[in-house]
Amino acid sequence: MTTATALPPDYVKITTDPATEPFWNAAKDERLVAPKCAGCGHFRLPPTPFCPECRAGDVEWVELSGRATVFSFAVVHGFPGLPDLTLVPVVVDLPDAPGARLVSNVIDVAPEDVSIGMPLQVTFGPIADGWKLPLFRRAES
Amino acid sequence: MSREVAIVGVGATPYYKRGTSWPQTSTELAGKAILAACEDAGISVTDIDGFAYYSGAGAGYGETMDTATFMETLGIPEVTFSAALTSGGGGSAGSIGLARAAIVAGDATMVVTVMALQQARQRLGSVFAAAPSTPLGSFLQPSGLSGPGHLMSVLARRHMHNYGTRREAFAEIAISQRLNAANRPQALKRDPITLEDYFNARMIAEPLCLLDFCLETDGAVAVLTTSLDRARDLRQKPVPVVAAAHGGHKDWGRAFAWMGMPDETFASSGHAAVADRLFQRAVVTPADIDVALLYDHFTPMVLMQLEDYGFCKKGEGGDFVESGAIRYDGGSIPVNTHGGQLSEAYIIGMTHIKEAVEQMRGEAINQVAGAELALVTGGPASLPVSGLILGRDA
Questions:
Q1: Which residue among the candidates B15, B16, B54, B295 is catalytic per the annotation?
Q2: ipTM higher than threshold 0.95
């Protein structure tokens, strides 16, 4: 049976800017965080310079529980240079950061077992240059 | 909008399988298309004084088109307008609106819109895997959604979940467009496909298979727009621009590069706002459209555009398509009578404008009898998206 994985660490290179760096610094410590507008409390991901609701710039970086649910997903067969890889890229809703979504992967799962609405829990995987990437596993029921 | 401007010339190179147009460069392909459009219109290339691009004047993704370079190589003496719609293929239809704006404002008199695609160096299908990392892209690229179709497969799945849309509907789009390509010598795929072929095709990004993905091709298409008055003195029957619109709502925004859209917009083509404005400007309804040339990079996006443009209700695109409604032979709204990007060639939306012009001249290979209004759309993609309605001259 095929098991979904993440891309190998060497294949994932991220870059940051001042707005996004706190997200990645927290991920390096295996903490999932999201920026909450200091003015109106609106969550946004990816992190951007302004709150789209109130235009404030300041944010509070809230540490999340790591729980998520599958909003939608794909089952991807192959990646350039890695024809045998099976990936389950996923778009997740974050219950403790309503309105914000993350694009990630469900790993250690048979693709046919993934469904919309499935509860997930964050985990972290190594990527290039010493960074870590938030990934998701099926939550224990 | 009144019918102040018209398309007076279209030109295209042959279409090639990805990478095989080499040693022609993208500039050479674009130049051949521009010269062919001038020949079609009966003008000299030296009459061109405006350039209206889309996709940020990119030629595909990775190469660029440049007005000064075209002037240098084609000997165009002076230009008075040179501009591009931002972002990517979403603006293809809207670029004719940009040309219209230049002409109506008096900034230019003969405006060319051109797109060339030459994929010898980088194929579009894996463009996101090859792109250098950016701060925003770092929230997308690591997932392995390596090309546009991979990204849109996630939207397609949500549509299936919300509305019960079946893969059979996506198959019907691929099958019907292949039928339309069967009698077209320039089409790169002409052999019919069956439902069985569709379900046997390789899965690329489930729920999408190979036959849901458009072709990867090389070639160029150019379109000339001028005032309706001048158009009447030229070689071809003018094809009036009835209305054009581009833009969109922030709920769609960067779309599948963002994935933050509210649910109803997530499972859409992102065209709803532009569609409303386009029909208001044209003072027509979807029922008045005789032939629809809908940007078909991936089959589910044709279905979702049929909903966003009001040919059927939101969520009913699957049943609508499966009923045979989009067939050239017997459908209520023939779609992509040229075979589209799924079967003829993918030149980032330009073949749809060319087909609409031929339909409105009454000269299309798969002519819709008595057609008086043609809808053309730009790609469901990051904003701006766009739409265009062309008419038959009185």
A1: B295
A2: yes
